[in-house]
Design a protein that fits this description.
By secondary structure, the chain is an alpha/beta fold. It is built from 21 helices and 14 strands. The longest helix has 24 residues, at 2-25.
Length: 556
């Protein structure tokens, strides 16, 4: 009993330290290396700026309707998977009621013959039923699943009457999610059978879990150097430092001049073996560009010189780039992949994402190479959940750490959420490359992008790497092009980005995001293509120019 209380105490202590350290790791990098203690930015969070501006916009002086192009939350949803979820829930409840026909009570669905009962319950002339039939047939015929076992897993999962088992991912769900990742992100590279998947409460939970485990397992330690690809999603930059941890971050920056891609000079920073991890968003946020084939190829050369480098890539926007290829498919041994269904399928409120790792990976090798002291420490941590803690894979440690280790048996994403992920994945898989939903989503984003760029008088970027989900607009350049250098210089001095954004909200009812908050260049704003209708972007541009007209009068 004394030993158990001791372990609980250690677990709580570790969690507190890991939490503080996780926040620290995302501290803002500078042109040169900087200690975590010195990395507090004097800039207000871009999201806090936007929150204030939303309040201003709601009572704007022109009494315009609010145009909020700051949000990355899409204003579309996938309906097919949601109809399927609702219909399958109805079917699953019937199975449970059949097992225990009591008023208001059901029992456990019976597996024997459930595949046949499912087929008999579905109407092939009904669109949603037909999709469910096709989805199950795809899993049986293409993925080699047993029909009864699959349908039983889906029924138990959607009812939610059991803990997730296995904890990390339901058995058939892992196969389906792997097939989805391979179809959408790997560009023909076959990795499905050698990849482990851990469904999580969205991409943000995935990031938190990963960094908790990297620090807890001594793969990242005080004094280690962490590279961050910038500009990047602002919450990964705005974390306050904790001076008890002497962490260092290094920027690996991309620029518009290089097509928002990394130069060899920037990537060469990763050759330094003192850099333990490289974190990036691909396609990027806010620049909305994917890494080029040339960059992916050079990254392989970089890793040859720093073979212990841990790469963490967030690929939530990957499906918005034609022929996208994730870093994971190029460097599966070194890369941890994070993906979320939130943007493509309009599922931000569902919080459904996943971590994917190769069964043969650098983290497991680094664990085997830890000092005897660290190994003994970790053995003592994980021996409450496994008989062979020294063989416990890193991804399973992530699962265990997500529930303080001791609650490993109750870990895992809720099973109804996992089933929802199945239906989202299958709504793509049964169509393959000709997926009409992904084509429609990309068309929506592209039309909004083209409308905005034309209205602003800017040349659209038609490069294959451009996801077009966001646009970085340089207000100084826009002013110079349309009003002349004198006005642009005046604007730069008298109306910095925050004041411009405040005025845009307060006077014109428009909300945009503050570019430097993402470590984008000064004078820039981020405009999202996700949250407004196509014609709204024309009106948005008109109001921006209306404000600039007022500024010009003010200058004169």
């Amino acid at each position: 009993m004394r030993n158990m209380f001791g372990k609980k105490s250690r677990i709580i202590s570790i969690l507190l330290c890991a939490f503080m350290l996780t926040w620290t790791l995302f501290g803002c990098g500078a042109e040169k290396d900087s200690d975590a203690e010195d990395e507090l930015s004097d800039e207000m969070s871009a999201f806090e700026v936007a929150a204030d501006q939303r309040e201003m916009a709601s009572e704007n002086k022109a009494d315009y309707s609010v145009l909020d192009a700051g949000r990355g939350n899409p204003n579309w949803i996938n309906t097919q998977a949601r109809y399927a979820f609702s219909r399958f829930m109805e079917y699953a409840l019937g199975e449970c009621e059949g097992a225990m026909p009591e008023d208001g009570m059901g029992g456990e669905a019976v597996q024997k013959g459930i595949g046949e009962r499912f087929t008999a319950a579905m109407d092939p002339n009904n669109e949603t039923d037909a999709f469910l039939i096709d989805a199950v047939d795809y899993c049986v015929e293409r993925l080699g699943m047993d029909r009864d076992e699959l349908v039983k897993e889906l029924v138990d999962g959607i009812i939610g009457d059991y803990y997730p088992s296995p904890s990390r991912c339901l058995t058939n769900t892992e196969v389906i999610l792997n097939e989805y990742l391979q179809s959408t992100l790997y560009k023909g590279v076959d990795l499905a059978d050698e990849t482990d998947v851990f469904p999580t409460e969205g991409g943000s939970a995935a990031m938190t879990y990963i960094f908790d485990s990297l620090t807890h397992n001594r793969l990242l330690n005080p004094g280690d150097r962490i590279a961050i690809g910038t500009p990047i999603f602002t919450p990964y930059l705005e974390i306050p430092s904790v001076k008890d941890y002497d962490l260092v971050t290094v920027d690996v920056a991309n620029t518009e001049e290089n097509g928002w891609d990394y130069t060899k000079e920037e990537m060469d920073k990763l050759k330094d073996p003192s850099i333990k991890a490289f974190f990036l968003v691909n396609p990027s946020n806010p620049a909305s560009h994917a890494l080029s084939e040339k960059t992916l190829k050079y990254l392989k050369q970089v890793v040859k010189e720093n073979p212990d480098l841990i790469i963490l890539t967030d690929d939530v926007y990957g499906t918005f780039v034609e022929d996208f290829q994730t870093v994971y498919s190029v460097l599966p041994y070194n890369t941890i992949l994070v993906y979320s269904y939130s943007k493509l399928y309009g599922a931000t409120g569902w919080r459904v994402g996943m971590i994917a790792m190769n069964k043969n990976n650098v983290c497991d090798r680094l664990l085997r190479g830890l000092s005897d002291e660290d190994k003994e420490y970790l053995k003592d941590e994980y021996d409450i959940v496994t008989d062979e803690p020294e063989k416990f894979p890193f991804i399973e440690r992530v699962v265990a750490d997500s529930r303080s280790i001791g609650l490993y048996h109750t870990s895992g994403l809720s099973t109804p959420s996992q089933v929802f992920m199945d239906f989202l994945a299958l709504s793509h898989l049964i169509y393959g490359e000709e997926d009409p939903y992904i084509q429609r989503a990309n068309k929506v984003v592209n039309e909004r992008y083209e409308t905005l760029m034309k209205a602003l008088g800017l040349e659209p970027d038609e490069s294959v790497s451009n996801a077009k989900y966001y646009v970085i607009v340089d207000i100084d350049d826009l002013a110079k092009e349309n009003y002349g250098k004198e006005f642009a210089d005046w604007l730069h001095e008298e109306k910095p980005e925050k004041e411009f954004l405040d005025d845009l909200a307060e006077r014109k009812g428009v909300v945009l995001m503050y570019g430097p908050g993402f470590k984008a260049p000064e004078g820039t704003v981020r405009i999202s293509m996700a949250n407004l209708e196509k014609d709204d972007y024309k009106e948005l541009a008109r109001r921006m120019f209306e404000l600039l007209d007022e500024y010009e009068k003010e200058m004169k």
